[in-house]
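Troubleshooting: if your tokenizer reports a length mismatch, compare your output against this known-good record of 927 residues.
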Amino acid sequence: MGIATTASAQISEGGTPPSFRYQTTLRSKEAVTDIPVTFSVEDMKQVDRWQESEGLAPLCVSTLIEVTLNPENSGKWSILPDGQEIWQLELRADGAIALMLYYSDFYIPEGGKLFLYNAEKTQILGAYTHATHPSGGRFATEFVAGDVVTLEYVKSPEGQMPRIEIEAVGYGYNHLSVPEQGGVQLRRGAKSSGPCEVNINCEEGDAWQNQKKGVCHTVQRIGTKSYICTGSLVNNTAQDLKPYVLTAMHCSTEKNTVASDEDLKQWVFYFHLEQSGCSTSSPAVGSKTLTGCKRMAYTLTNGQSDGLLLLLNTPVPENYNVYYNGWDRSNQPPRSGVCIHHPRGDYKKISTYSKPGTHNTFVSDNDLKGDRHAHWNVTFMKTRNGHGVTEDGSSGSPLFNTDKLIVGTLTGGSSTCAKPEGLNLYGKMSYHWNKYTDQPHSHMDQFLDPKKSGVEVLEGRYHTLLMPPSNLRSTYQTGTVALAWDAPSSGIPQGYRVYRNNTKIEETNARSYIDRSPPAGTVMYAVTAVYANGNESSAITSSLALSEYKAPEHVKVTRTSAGKAAVVWDMPVYEQTMYWGGENSKYEVNMNNEGETRPFYFGQAWTTDEIMPLHLKTITAVKFIPIQNNTYEIYIVQGNRSYRQKIVDVTYRRTNTIKLTTPFVINGTQPLTVAIYVSELSASSTNYPAVCDQGPAIDGKGDLYSYDGKTWKTLHSGLDAHKFNFNFFIAAVVSSKSGELPTTYSSEVSMPQLFSTSSTETVRVRKAQIADIKLDTVLMRSLQPYAFPQVTGYHIYRDKVKIATVSAAPTRYIDPMTHLKPVYYQVSALYGNAESVWSEAVEFIPMSNVPGAEDVTIYPTVFTEQLHLKGAERVKRIEFYTVDGRLRLQADRPGGVIDTHSLPSGMYLIRIYTIDGQTDVARGVRK
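Known-good structure output:
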């Protein structure tokens, strides 16, 4: 856990201690109290390590040193030059990382103010006022960085005395960090958690910005020590904003000691403890805290589900902007979702899982065993910015399902950054609810469903209800998904956010969106409304199963000399991106010594075995990230063939997709190299023209460079190979369109040869994270080339009825039937036993529909259940009207016989519309 450096806010009004305006503060030794440190920190850490390994306690951060300090027996009263009377007390506890003060009584009278600050005066808490803890009684203030903390009380104008009774000093000695000062602002000690963890404000957290605002970091007193965990505010069916916090029961237990009711009054809850960006160097967001709670319900760790429901002693102020998370107690395995947590007390992190949770039973190393199947186990996945897991300090954190509802709280697990596939066990919400009916203390249902509604699912909410959009419609057609929705029933949103599988894909002011590249499989779309304060409503969702293969393209129909319909089409076209390495750009390199401007190539290569699945397919584009003040060319070489193309009109520091003027046909029997040639570069010491990924290097494949395009070397070699353990950020886009190899080859390039970098060669490198890369780089994953879906034939449809099946070649079909009226054709592609969607319908108008064709007439004019139509091939539509003008029957392209059994008896005016735009009217009688 790191120490916040800007003033974290318990309920306080901010401001600066008045003594800061003068240089006379704390000159008297009477204001200084040394706190005796009579224990060995190393001995306590050793005990902590043993307890953590045995699962006997949550993560311990401080030990409490008993004191009895108040304004009457400690510190010094003084009058400042401006006439304000203040009381100051400086506490020193040698060697502490941070100090937290515990009060047996804490009461600030109206008009009084209390500040706390560290020795450097860079961290200020307060001003605490009467509104902070108006009822008085037990209390605790937040950690202050360092081993010195000063209290400064400003007396109220009325002169009423405060009650500031300090009963213990929390000596922070473990799992805390005070970062070095940078400029005028300190940062919280980031990276106290594992390096694989993902900040909540990375793109992985885009869809979870509401839910994160309910998750809190907790510092909980248990007897004479303090520990850290994670919890979450939760909503209840009364929707009354009662500040219930859900966490794990073991967070209140140390070996056989359970936190007392008096201990609970001094628990501290930190909200918004996070960094503003994705990087661990991002500045911190100002956190807000509340102190004190009551235990409302719990299930035991041993033999039950390890749940704990607390009620904060203070309502959460509206300006804290927190979210009361919803829950799902249905015991249905969560399909996918996230955990939001504070591993090792670090800033808020997010861990993502994409496979369904499984029923599990918690068993610890010290023989604690939960109830059978009382826990969910999930395995977290690697995402763009890391591979989140859980750690000590994550205990009690909420597990969210796809619908962004809490389904469990973390008890423990075995996952680590080194072993991310380990267990992550969450006590089930369904067991916390009322599983143990014979134990009154275990009934969370009476608090979370006070209305006794019986609902299994409850949405979350903000202090002010935000109405979501309504009536989401989703339509799949020809490879795209069209979404449309209605505005909220009340409120005026500033815009909408569209998510696909809980990943944000669009922000818009419109009430519609077209997803032009939906993935295959089950896809869930969600739309939220965004209001003026940036908060989002809950989402409306729609799921689609998208598994269709591509249909034939450019379907047309023409007339043969014999008047037959000839249907022609193009084979479906697919694309894939070939690339060795990771999906994120991170480094930039230059293959020159300082001041040199020698042109060079950088690229990637594939062996014949790797490239054979793409034999005779075509490279249509190359992706890379250009850096300003350099000139680039595409360079592709295979055998003695080469391709060069100058690159112009690029966007710097973004992924550019450069289309080839002439597609390059792949020969699957020869190795392939795709490269970028830096033909001109500046001599600037800050110029690094080639962008690389984050590594590790795929030697001889993803890390090739050359000075002549013939002899290739690898970055990750030589004496300093460890400095260049990454791949060049370049990819080839390959189309399924087949081409023909040229009959003659250029002799410009001979077969490439691969040599290692010599130990004397200098490669310049800098670590430079490129944070604003377009999202298409996420597709550039390390994948071997793969064969495209193989079309094995086609179905031909006429007026939606299959009339023929043909082989994959040629892509043409002549309908043997002679048609007298217009018809429509469609074509689908066959992939073995699977069939694609149908192509768009195309119309064929036969010769019989030209002028001079047979006249249109009806017979007989007196009819019963059928009416015959002569010249039906010319009829577009026929309508039957009663003599008083009411339409009784209508048929489009009716054919030669019309079913009239539904018409009542009587006289009808029959209006006939022909395909050449004429309208005829006839009379008939239905008997």
